[in-house]
Specification:
Layout: H1 12-18, H2 23-41, H3 53-60, H4 66-71, H5 73-78, H6 82-97
């Protein structure tokens, strides 16, 4: 016999309490959630057709524009390849942290 559980309504305030508080924390959570999804859907263990570290570094050093995502073959690959997206995120984090960490 199943017991009926009292369920609490989902409210925006309850959701906000569980969400990271700063925009940086929200971005970190979003990028790691996207990385998990890309890695699960597109594992690419052989790194087939990957553009390489220099291409990913170039992507990491520039602001992403919507038209880049649609037109740049490096972006098209990177957002559908778990290993490349992970490498991009790492390179981007290094870039954002500052040049003293890049070498």
């Amino acid at each position: 016999m199943e017991q009926e559980q009292e369920s609490q309504p989902v409210t925006a305030a309850a959701v906000r309490k569980r969400m990271p508080r700063t925009s940086e924390q929200r971005w970190d959570r979003l990028k790691w959630e996207f990385l998990r999804a890309v890695s699960a859907e597109y594992p690419n263990p052989a790194r087939k057709d990957c553009p390489g570290t220099e291409a990913l570094r170039d992507l990491a050093e520039h602001m992403v524009l919507r038209e880049d995502l649609r037109g740049d073959p490096r972006w098209k690959h990177a957002i559908q390849c778990g290993p490349c997206f992970e490498e991009y995120i790492t390179l981007r984090d290094i870039r954002v942290a500052g040049p003293h960490l890049a070498h």
